[in-house]
Design goal:
Blueprint: H1 2-15, H2 21-34, E1 41-48, E2 51-58, H3 61-72, E3 79-82, E4 85-86, H4 93-105, E5 115-121, E6 124-131, H5 134-145, E7 152-159, H6 164-178, H7 184-187, E8 194-199, E9 202-209, H8 212-223, E10 230-233, E11 236-237
Parallel strand pairs: 2-3, 2-4, 6-7, 9-10, 9-11
Antiparallel strand pairs: 1-2, 5-6, 8-9
Amino acid sequence: LLALSLVLGAGMCWAGPPTTDTQGVEGIQARLDRAKVNQHGDVHVTYVNGVVTLTGTVDNLGSKLDAEKAARKFRGVTQVVDNVRVHADDINDQQIVQQARHAIVMYYAFTIFDNVEFEAHNGVLTITGQVTQPFKKTDMGRILESVKGVSAFQNNLEVLPNSRFDDQLRLQLARAIYGNPYFTPYTNLAIPPIHIIVKNQNVTLEGVVVSNMDRIQAGMVANHTGLTFSVVNNLRVVKG
């Protein structure tokens, strides 16, 4: 009985809040290490009577948010003061956009029926466009917050309405364009560059082609596909 009571007592002490501020700092720092926050900078922790203050610098917004989340989850914390700065000397706005575009292209759920446009200004990344499902908007936000150099993030993606008719039209347009022998060079690319955006049976073509003739041809194919109310051709011509 004595041994059992000692074990239970030790367990209860371990599960409780830290008994000293030093233990609080050590426990929160361990959480930051598990979240790999300090792989992206240097975050310092102070802990006084349940109040955590985070200071230091990281190279992306996602790591800053991860640090705050890890601190809030620590038992006994009543408040988190997040003074962590986001800064990356070696990254400019153009590089942020390039990294962001690459990250989204590699995202498993990004398809030819989605469209994402990127803009960065002094480390603030803004995305606009359309996606077919709400989870894509959420996932893309999490991905882009962790892009190096992003200090703030605006997610202005529109989630397209759920429509059986729109889904049918998307498939018809995809077959009409990418099944057309004229567009075989595009079909064979690992990342097809013509994106088909459908909203309430209105169609917008987004993306890039290599010639104005290809742009015109894609618009003509889309216009001759049934169930379409209107077609807007926003394809851009990019050589090479």
